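Sample A.
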Amino acid sequence: MAKFSWRKATLVAAVVPMLALSACSSTGGKPADSGNAAGGGQAASTARIKVALITHAAAGDTFWDIVRKGAEEASAKDNVELLYTSDPEAGRQAQLIQQAIDQKVDGIAVTLAKPEALKDALKKATDAGIPVVSLNAGESVSTQLGAFTHFGSNEQLAGQAVGARLAAEGYKHPVCVIQEQGHVGLEARCAGVKAKVPGAEILYVDGKDMTAVQSTATAKLQATKDADVIIGLGAPITLTLLKSVTDAGSSAKVASFDLNADLAQKIVDGAVLFTVDQQPWLQGYMSIDALWQNKRGGFKLGGGQSVLTGPSIVDKSNAADVLKFAQQGIR
């Protein structure tokens, strides 16, 4: 296989000093943490504000714990009361936006996995004078829905980065596994892979049921003998796909998007080729901090453009270094 050399700089935004409370999630992720998430330090001297972080997190998805940890740390430094809620169903996520409006929050940070379902609620927010930033998903429609900036990875480019790497290493028939049909970011990732490796296939699975994910992927690998790599679009999904490869007796390799400590260890061990990290801690931190900065001085990060937190490749060459941060729950 051809040797691949990865060279890409990730845009990093500066952050500023600042304390507060975190709130609770009605679904998924870790239990509510009502203490000082930063573990001490001096709060900003600005008046306390209230910010809602509303995501499409599904119950038990560890990715969102990392996003939330970043948001909690920014809140603690910025003297922000953080109201965290989540729901994977787009209609209910829209209801959570309305709930935040009714609570008269000073800012809303929101993920846009299914933007069409959220546009009316977000218009109500901006009509009410509530500043909005988006994160993680929906960068292509963020400004249209009233957000003054977006924090995340360009998912199309991230997918193309994976496809380019796989093509350079000689892979011809990837299977790209989407755990939530219709999620704009996930669809863009696989489209990006296919743009660089035309033989790529998409496999839809039910990401809320890991047993079903495992069995569906196993059946696909058994039926597709020439599949040479299978790609998970989230760390829990990828870890499950490793079991599918074993169950199917397949020779397919495994690649991934996103990261947690277990996945980082699998890369160190050589069981997973690489992952594309979008650095979710930064997404949570910078979203809250940007809303505080907007309240503090009318500042708007990004100049009307998305602030990129990825793609950042984690492979055998750097996984050991990343692992120590993943074990802290911030990568």
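Sample B.
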Amino acid sequence: MRRITRIATVGIASAALALSATACGGKKSSDASSSSSSSSEAKSAGAAIAYDVGGRGDQSFNDAAYAGLEKAEKDLKVKTAEAEPTEGESEADKVQRLTELARKGNNPVIGVGFSYAPAIKKVAAKFPNTTFGIIDDTSVTDKNIANLVFNEEQGSYLAGVAAAKASKSGTVGFIGGVEVPLIKKFQAGFEQGVKDTNPNAKVLSTYLTQPPDFSGFAKPDLGKAAAKGQLDSGADVIYSAAGLAGSGAIEAAATAGKWAIGVDSDQYNQAGLSKYKDHILTSVTKDVSDAVYNLIKSVKDGKPESGEVRYGLDKNGVGLAESNPQYKSMADIIAAVEKAKADIIAKKITVKTAP
């Protein structure tokens, strides 16, 4: 999907949003941007987020961040601004986007995804009185940077337990959007969960693209093709950590009458995937929404978060969704997942962060 850069309020309509219905909705918020850089504007500006590859409407990672922004707009009465990525953009584009958001007085300014790390390092130094948040990265640090990170491997382990228990063929699949360390955490946890549950199970793992090509997070056709390949090889449960591209994998699994496992958001409840929801067994959720909301609230309260802010199973920062009634009726799977969760929290199980 081609995206056009914009600095806009939550409620501005666009062709991209019209084509991508989301569970987050399109509720309006007030305009947080103007051409003025006066002190009065700074006082009226609010929180801003800059989206990752795929933009808002990916029914996954970016939409989870948007949900936190929307909640802050509603509950905290803050104005909000958004910025969309462009296809194949450079680091300079990200720097310009973050600079514009900060210059307009927004605080905090949040980069959705590790790809914003170099840009945030540069821009945060220029705006020392603005708090910058970055999701899924700890490589850049400063007193005005909050690193919002998650134990993705723990939630993925639970998905592996569920997949192994649900599989009838003994073969399951993992699809990663781009082969980077973050996505390898998803792969590692999933594979470990599968093998600990069924040592004889086979896990097929596929990556859609290699860095610096990050289109594997944005192209559903790539996810669909990869899932078809795994289905042809006998997989009957497929877990994707691929952003918007994961919707293609979900479509392929559902069309074949097999199980899909979603990621980041509870994809069973995503409006854009409603056609396939009966085949979305569960989703590995990351509480990106609360992470975004909590950072915005901390700034509003005058005590901005800084440094590493980690969300794991112990804080319900990651987990498995139970929205699908079919999943909730599978007592043996629920029991196995709950035991694994308890063992991870009790540190009886240490989940790997690399395959």
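B remarks: The chain has twelve helices and 13 strands. Confidence is low (pLDDT under 50) at residues 1-44.
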